[in-house]
Amino acid sequence: MKTHVFYAGAAAALLLSGSARAEDPQPMQHPQPDHAAAHAAMHEAMQHQMTAPTAGAQMPAEMPGMPDRASATATRGEHAAQAQQHAAAARELATKRGAQDAAMARGGNMHGATAGAAGHTGSGMMGETGTSQQGAGMMRTGDMHGGSGGMMPGGGGMMGGQSGGAGGTTGGSGGMMGGTTPGTGTPASTPMAPSTGGPTSGPMMGK
Amino acid sequence: MIARAALAVAALAISAGPAAGEHLLAGARAFRDDKFDAALVEFRVAEKLGAPEAGAYAGAALVKLGRAEEAVEAFASSAPGDDDLLDWYRAVACYDAKLYGCAERALAGLDRAGPKVAAEVARLRGEIARVLSPQPAPASVDWYLARCEARYGEGRAALGAAYCREAAELGGRRPDRHGVARANAVLVRFEPASLPGSKR
């Protein structure tokens, strides 16, 4: 009899523990209770953060190794950098030559001043007074928008400004050739700045 | 012998006890408060103290920090399928590392997730399907192979293996099976038990 009561008690205890486990809301059993708390906290945190955007997951998928938009952009960037380097080199050269020309003009061995005085275009490029020093100085400001005509004092500058200047940085170098040679530059593939190139309408037109 | 093993297990359990739990909890709080750097430190400490789940939590923090490759490595310590939320972060880690096959496998198990998760899962799966639908170019397979070999070279075997598996899967979808043999050769050399069909 005692044995039967014992068995019945044990069975009841087993049943109770079984039902308690079945109702357990925890999805995972953790050996340490504080780990369970941490797990619950982390789950709540991860759920909370799911709504916050994760930078990478917002990006469209793309197959690597393919010529894609990003690499095209990089190529464009490289071209732009190259063009910038060329422009800087041309600017440096222009400044150097402008300074030489200015020195020449000071020495009186030039015809630019007269051309600058006589030609309207000269005054446009070289500034109001059209002196060779100003022409050189203008080049030192660095921009190439048709202004490379300023290489040569006076007439040389005019020609470059009118013709070669239309091409942007490359075309502008035509102006360096002097007053007798119109600028032969071709339009630059990556325009550094819109260049109107007209005799009086360029952004460099002096006041 | 058995007694010694039992003692070792007990010691491990004690070492991963309250201290590790505290770090996990601190990490969880930091994670919730957007302090992912701090969370990562806490999870790394908890991992060192023997908390088994800390590696995957560190992976989630790394995902939020935008360190996808490290996250993939962190998740490599646990198998997918145990926890939907962690699988979501695992999938994002793979996706961000351009391991689209890996991401797709992790996302495939999240079909029964809640509506919020389900929408995000559908979006990512759509992105992956779009990028995986055309036949992979040899250049793409080569990209994965190069990554695989580079990561192995850096001693990052789990990451290297992930890239090689991706290369083998992509190459296997081409008639010429471009790169498959090379990827398998690397996998077998470094992980003899690991073959392209493995889960991770």
Describe the secondary-structure layout.
The complex is a heterodimer of chains A (207) and B (200).
Chain A: H1 2-22, H2 33-50, H3 69-106, H4 112-118, H5 120-126, H6 132-140, H7 155-162, H8 169-172
Helix pairs in contact in A: 3-6, 4-5, 4-7, 5-7
Chain B: H1 2-15, H2 18-32, H3 36-48, H4 54-64, H5 68-75, H6 84-96, H7 100-108, H8 115-132, H9 138-153, H10 157-172, H11 180-190
Helix pairs in contact in B: 2-3, 3-4, 4-5, 4-6, 5-6, 6-7, 7-8, 9-10, 9-11, 10-11
Short description:
The complex is a heterodimer of chains A (207) and B (200). By secondary structure, chain A is an all-alpha fold.
| Helix content estimate of chain B | over 70%
> What string gives the helices and strands of chain B in order?
HHHHHHHHHHH
Total strands of chain A: the figure is 0
Largest interface: A-B, 32 and 51 residues
- Computed structural class of chain A: mainly alpha
- The fraction of residues in strands of chain A falls at under 5%
Number of helices of chain B: 11
Mean pLDDT of chain A: 51
Structural domain tally of chain B = 2
SSE order of chain A = HHHHHHHH
Question: What is the fold named in CATH at topology level of the largest domain in chain B?
Answer: Serine Threonine Protein Phosphatase 5, Tetratricopeptide repeat
Could you give me the name of the CATH homologous superfamily of the largest domain in chain B? Tetratricopeptide repeat domain
Shape of chain B: globular
| CATH-defined architecture of the largest domain in chain B | Alpha Horseshoe
* Sequence stretches where pLDDT stays below 50 over 5 or more residues of chain B: 5-15, 195-200
Helix percent band of chain A: 40-55%
Q: Measured on Cα atoms, how large is the radius of gyration of chain A?
A: 40 Å
| Radius of gyration over C-alpha positions of chain B, nearest whole angstrom | 19 Å
Structural class by helix and strand composition of chain B: mainly alpha
SS elements, strand count of chain B:
0
